[in-house]
Design goal:
With 144 residues, the chain is mainly α. The chain has 6 helices and no strands.
C-alpha cells in the first residue's frame, strides 16, 4: 500500500505543476476511473509482487487525478455559504459507511475468495465509469 500512497503523492505533485485544460478534464476523469478499474481487476488475477507494485502506483496516480477533479467540481458547483455543510456531510457519510463496508467485506470474505470480491467490485466500478462517460450532465459538471 505504500506504493499506492507514493503514486497518490506523485500524482498530486504532477497536478500542482501542470494544469488540465477545461475541455480535457472530463476525459481525464473518465480515463482515471477506467484505469483504476483495470489495474485493480488485473491485481485481483495476479500474484506477481512487482506487477502488483506497478499496478498500485498507477492506481495511486489515477486516484489523485480523479480525487482532484471531484474536489474541484464540488467546490465549483456548491455555493460558498453551503460548502462547509456539504463537505462536512460528505465526510460524515464516508466515515459512517466505512464500518458498514468493512463488515460486508468481512462477511463476503468468509464465503468468497477476496480476489473474486475485488474483481467483481472493480468490474462494477468499470461499468459505472463507462456509463458516466455517456452522461452529458456529468461532463458539464466535471468540465466547470
Amino acid at each position: 500500500m505504500a506504493v499506492n500512497t507514493f503514486g497518490i503523492f506523485i500524482g498530486y505533485a504532477i497536478l500542482s505543476v501542470i494544469e488540465i485544460k477545461k475541455e480535457k478534464k472530463f476525459f481525464v476523469f473518465i480515463m482515471s476511473g477506467i484505469l483504476i478499474s483495470c489495474t485493480m481487476i488485473i491485481y485481483s488475477m495476479t500474484l506477481n509482487f512487482y506487477l502488483i507494485a506497478v499496478l498500485f502506483f498507477i492506481d495511486g496516480l489515477c486516484l489523485a487525478a480523479m480525487g482532484s477533479l471531484l474536489q474541484t467540481s464540488i467546490q465549483s458547483c456548491v455555493p460558498p455559504n453551503m460548502r462547509s455543510k456539504v463537505f462536512a456531510f460528505r465526510n460524515t457519510l464516508y466515515t459512517a459507511l466505512m464500518p458498514i463496508g468493512m463488515m460486508i467485506a468481512g462477511m463476503l470474505g468468509e464465503k468468497i475468495q477476496m480476489n473474486i470480491i475485488i474483481f467483481a467490485d472493480y468490474a462494477v466500478f468499470l461499468m459505472l465509469f463507462i456509463y458516466l462517460s455517456f452522461l452529458s450532465s456529468v461532463k458539464k459538471i466535471i468540465n466547470i
